[in-house]
Amino acid sequence: VQLQASGGGLVQAGGSLRLSCVASGRTFTNNAMGWFRRAPGKEREFVAAISWNGGSTPYADSVKGRFTISRGRTTGTVYLQMNGLKPEDTAVYYCAASNRAYSGRDYTQYMSWGQGTEVTVSS
Predict the structure, then answer these.
(1) How many angstroms separate the CA atoms of 102 and 121, rounded?
(2) Cα 87 from chain centroid (whole Å)
(3) Which long-range contacts (CB under 8 A, 24 or more apart) does 46-50 make?
(4) What would the pLDDT profile of 80-111 be if each residue is shown by its tens digit?
(5) Are 57 and 69 in contact (CB under 8 A)?
């Protein structure tokens, strides 16, 4: 089972990026999915999660109102739309699949992790 994250890149402050996460080997349509990030020299940080049916979408306070997580019900792809990017959003972003239908910031609930996609926001 692999999770492939893509969509990262270099963007100016105030710009937007859309990250995607595709699973191969199995689908996670009955599992919550999440996005985490790790900035240089910092700990892993929760960004957003989405429940199996899309009905619950918790966000970190730092991204609330700027980022939107969504998922395709038939494709299983998970997206993270990032608007109003700030230099402090610079990090490697990881998608992860939970072992539960509903999950949040507790990374121990996530059993499968992607390789990460790098986001750099210049000031």
Answers:
(1) 30
(2) 17
(3) 46/104, 46/105, 46/107, 47/80, 47/93, 48/80, 49/98, 49/103, 49/104, 49/105, 50/78
(4) 999 999 999 999 999 999 999 999 999 999 99
(5) yes
- Round to whole Å and give the CA distance between 1 and 100: 17
Is 46:105 a contact under the CB 8 Å cutoff? yes
Amino acid letter, residue 51: S
Let me know: does 67 contact 82? Beta carbons within 8 Å.
yes
Q: How far is CA 94 from CA 37, 123, in A?
A: 6, 23
SS3 55: coil
Query: Alpha carbon 55 to chain centroid distance?
Result: 16
- Quick one: which of 62, 13, 15, 10 has its CA closest to 35? 62
- Which residues, in sequence order, are bridge partners of residue 118? 92
CA 37 and chain centroid, separation: 8
| Residue partners of 75: CB distance under 8 A and separation at least 6 | none
**What pLDDT digit, counting tens, does each position of 30-42 carry?**
999 999 999 999 9
